Give the backbone structure.
Amino acid sequence: MKWLGVLCALSVLITPSLGLDREAFTFTNYDLDVRIEPEQQRLGVRGKITLRNDSLVPQKNVALQVSSTLDWSTIRIGGESVEFVTHEYTSDIDHTGALSEDIVTLPREVPPKGTIELDIGYEGVVPLDVTRLKRIGVPEDKAKHSDWDQIGKSFTAVRGIGYVVWYPVATESADLSEGNNVFETLGRWKTREANSNLEIKLNSSRGGSESTVTLLCTGQVDQTRDAGRATLLAVTCSLSPTELNVPTFVVGGYSVLDRPTVAIYHLPAHKSGAENYALATDLAVPLVTEWFGAPRQKAETVDLADPEAAPFESGPMLLTPLGSTNSTVYELSAVHQLTHAAFFSSRPWIYEGLAHFAQALEREQQNGRPAALDFMGRHRTAIVDAEKALAVAHTENEAANQSLINTSIEEFYRSKAMYVWWMLRDMVGDAALKKALSAYHSDQDKESSYVQHLIEAQTHRDLEWFFDDWVYRDRGLPDFRVESAYPRARVDGGSILTVTINNLGDAGAEVPVTLRMEGGEVTKRVEVHAKSKAAVRFETSSSPREIVVNDGSVPESDTSNNVFKVPPSDAAK
Ligand SMILES: [Zn+2]
């Protein structure tokens, strides 16, 4: 009896997953006709999708998911209608926190590597919706600045998976309240989709009498203006969706400020903000060109009506409010965006890491090294917290691997990666790093050690240990401490001060050590490997006061133990 009970419970648990593997199929091709009606908040889609069974077993069912405010109307295979059941499926990959999921029973099993083509149709509305954020306790007025996607009369901007599932996908349910669960689910989907093709024909009604309505989308754009009808806008976008390129469309009454490197689509009320942004872009061009080459494609900046809306980027397209008067904000955005237009890598830690690194370079150019360190320092706590959260996850799951090479955590591939590029620059110098970057080609970046070898070729310095601790593995952060400082008198007067630096962390780094003494200071750099000590010697002619390890250029878990006061007795020796 007891066993029977256990078996029954097991079969209840197992049956649904045995019947349906939501992540079995890769959606290799999308060919969609999308009709947008801003006045009705409506979206209507017809088209074809091709799916490939990438699992190891034949599949009899397939799941198709779109946002919960959209309804499935048709699914046909080979011209025949097929059987499907629709239900609401809870998942936070959509702003509504739920999906309209179809479970399609295929007319025949699709073997591993086999493909199937489906004709599909669905439609509905895309209103502003903050359900998923409210569910985890984000106040509504705050949530709407983050999940701002909607189709509306005055404002239409809709981002793809992770925000609004406006084209069909299939993933297991993801929950925002469970740590990194949503990012991991999105990461799996984007990895599966890396070689897929999306071709989307967007049509939008103009909405009223506005003559300046513009329709924009991410990817390669074929602008077929007006499509023969004055009331309709049309554009075709093709893209391969990746971690860094989310299918997105925007419809709005924009004016355009067209510059050689950037087209700025702004709302009429934000003309001066757009001019500020254009100026910031002009200023950023020389720095970006010097480090990353000339921009290879034109960047697009699109205004968001809500002045508090969180900016969003997809490749070289940036959606951001242009109502600000703060020129520093524009300078930082512009240099980041232009770096994307100049330098491509399919690896997020390189693509995003370099764009954030460029922002630090920009700060340095404007106000010196302390300004750059201050800018990077604002990311430090986020990295420390992410490492702590990960350390907890590690104890539960050994496989939780978040090296920079394969991480889906933004704090890592953005903030930590920025520091990694800055540390590399401090270690090898500007000239060597610039040369290494100019030799970088995304299509040749097959091995994870590609970048390491490019930089080593310019410096003849062994960087294996550094890449091992920071890029290939996640070893957390260093924790430096000045262990001791021993002065020794010299024959000619003055003294030699031997300073020992202890690294209590599991990641090594080359770190600056500054000796402050009467009448000035001296800084030297020292390589301190993980769980190791290293000594650095200073020649001094005046009394040492204090020693400081790390000027903030190396992200550290604990900076409270970085200053060492030299005792007066020692200093007098
Ligand atoms: Zn970016």
About this structure: The pocket of zinc ion is lined by residues 313, 336, 340, 352, 355 (CB under 6 Å). The radius of gyration is 28 Å. Residues 1-17, 225-229 have pLDDT under 50 and may be disordered.
